[in-house]
Each structure stands twice: as C-alpha cells, then as structure tokens.
Amino acid sequence: MGFRLWEALRPLDPYRSVKAALGALVIVSVTITTLLVFVAIHTATELRIVTIFSIIATMLITQFVAHGLTSPLDEMKTVARAMANGDYTRRVREGRRDELGDLAETFNQMASDLEAVDRHRKELVANVSHELRTPIAGLRAVLENVVDGVSKADPETMRTALRQTERLGRLVETLLDLSRLDNGVVPLRSRRFEVWPYLSGVLKEANMAAAARGQAQARADVHLHLDVTPPELTAHADAERLHQVVANLVDNAVKHSPPHGRVTLRARRGTGGPGSLDLEVLDEGPGIPVSERQRIFERFNRGSVSTPHGPGSDGGTGLGLAIARWAVDLHGGSIGVAESPRGCRIRVTLPGVPTSQG
C-alpha cells in the first residue's frame, strides 16, 4: 500500500539525477532524526526509543527509495533474459527523468534495433527463396523437356538453359544486396536497352516458370499480351532489377486472372528524362479494394482473405509486390495501383537517365 502511494506521488520525479535523489534521502533521514531528538528533549522521552523510531523511519524511507531506483534494473534484467531467448518484443517501462530513465530509453531503442535486425534477417531468407524460385523453375522446365524427349538438346535449348543458369548466378549475388536496403547503398547497373525484346524475354521466362511449377494445366488459358509503343522504344534502367519488377507483377496478375483471362504488359515512353519508361500490367481479375491499395506492397501481405484468387493460385508468399516496389524505389521511380474499369492495373514509372548524367 505504501509503495503504491509512493508510486502515485512520485516524490523523486523533480530530481533529474540519481545523485540528487540519494542526497534528498540523506537530508530527509537527518531531518527526521533531528525532529525525533527535538521531540525527545521536550517530552522527556528516552533516547533509545528515539533511536529505534529514527532507525525504523530511515529504513522504511530507504526501502521505498531503493525499490524505486532498482526496479528499472530488475525489469531490464527480465527483458534481457527474454531477448536472449529470442523474444525481442519486450520493452522496459519509461517515464523517469533521471539517468535510469535515459538508460531505459536507450535499452528500448537497442531492443527495437535487435528486433528489426532479426526481422530483416528472416525477410532476407524469404526474399532469396522467393527470387531463386523463378530461374530454378525455368531451368528445371528446360531440362525436363530434354529428358522427356519433348525437345532436343540442341544449341538453342542449351542456350536457354545457360541463360537461366547465368540469371541464377546473378540473383545469388544481387539478392544479397537486400541486407543493405536500409543503408541505401545498393548499386544500380543502369544501361540503355530495347524494350520490346527485353519484355518479350521476360514473358517467355514467366511462361516457362509457370509450367515448371505445375501451373500449366490451370493457367495455360491465361493469354499474355505485350503492347510496346513505339516498337523501337528504348529505356535506361538496371535490366536485372527491372526484371524483378516485371516478373513479379506478371506472375501476380496471372495468379489472380479468371479462366481464359488476359494479362497485358504495356510499355510507353515516360515523361521524365531520356530513357524514362512507363509500364503497366493489367489483368481481368477481381481487382484490389481501395482500402488495401497502400498495403499490398508491404512484405508478407497476401491481400484480403475475401479477395478471390485465380485457379491454381496458392496465394504466394506475399513478397513479390514488396520486391517490385523495392526495385522501383532504387531507380527513384514510383509504383502504385491505378484506376481501372475492370480488374487490376499496376503502373510503374521509371525516371530514365538522371539529369546530372543527361
């Protein structure tokens, strides 16, 4: 009861230092002892009784003060043990204005940083697994066709397998850059390229990956359409990063398409600098509710449970659109959901050559 009253009054709050609080404790103890001695002198009370009461009063006050000073340390010890067992969600109560309050704030900041590091580590593993799936699936499709006799091991087939292997090697290197996302030091290897053959190759790989994942029967009815205007359109961007964007957007559109649906990949010259590019991926699926349009690019967000998926869709890992946004942000571009009378339309804008390089 006394401790609750002490906590409610918080008489040490005016002191912004533990030293000041201890000094106040000494002053209060001396004052109480002096008052008791003064009372004893004027009431003929025995000195030993005064001494006993003085000791009891001093011990009670010291106990209250000591508990108030050490309780944050005990709480930090409990939270530290929880963190050692992998629980980074625990925090220490804040509110004090002395050195222990500063220590509690610093401790909570450290706990938040460790929680973020642990989350990023798990997301990195998930991102790597997600991105490696596409080239592995494409390579597997080529090799299975050769083994089953569907296609011959001619130079063209081997070149396709080699491209997938090379892409796999590049992804192993570039996906490790995800660990440096927060530092903003991921390099871009931008170059100028022709848009039509580039996007055509991305769609071809998307078909191969879908077949390798066992979606051929369920999703062969979805028609992929490429619309590039003008046909000789060129762009300036990191081709590998842009591949991540387009492949994930197309894969997501195919998964949400209805039977015999149509997915359109549209490319136009952007309004930015030289080599700027506007991309749109349109499908005929159920679309995305307005309330969810800001959250679909968050990691591990698989959309609303009530939102229907296309046949053969497993809902995905919730990483594809997050990776797409990350790659677009690296270019200094923008990605978002645009208004569409039917289905979903994702718009990507890339700025092209920076003004300082133009």
Helix content: 40-55%
Sum up the overall morphology in one term: elongated
Task: Write down how many β-strands occur, each being a DSSP E stretch of 2 or more residues.
Answer: 7
Q: Widest sheet: strand order?
A: 2-4-5-7-6
- Gap between N and C termini, in Å? 74 Å
Radius of gyration: 33 Å
Residue share in β-strands: 5-15%
Order of helices and strands: HHHHHEHHEEHEEHEE
Biggest sheet layout = 5 strands, mixed
Class of secondary structure makeup? alpha+beta
Number of distinct helices: 9
Which parts are unreliable, with pLDDT below 50 for 5 consecutive residues or more? 213-218, 305-317
Question: What does this protein look like?
Answer:
The protein is α+β, with helices and mostly antiparallel strands and 358 residues long. The strands form two sheets. The protein has a five-stranded mixed sheet with strand order 2-4-5-7-6, with helices on one face. The chain has a two-stranded antiparallel ribbon with strand order 1-3. It has nine helices and seven strands. Residues 213-218 and 305-317 have low confidence and may be disordered.
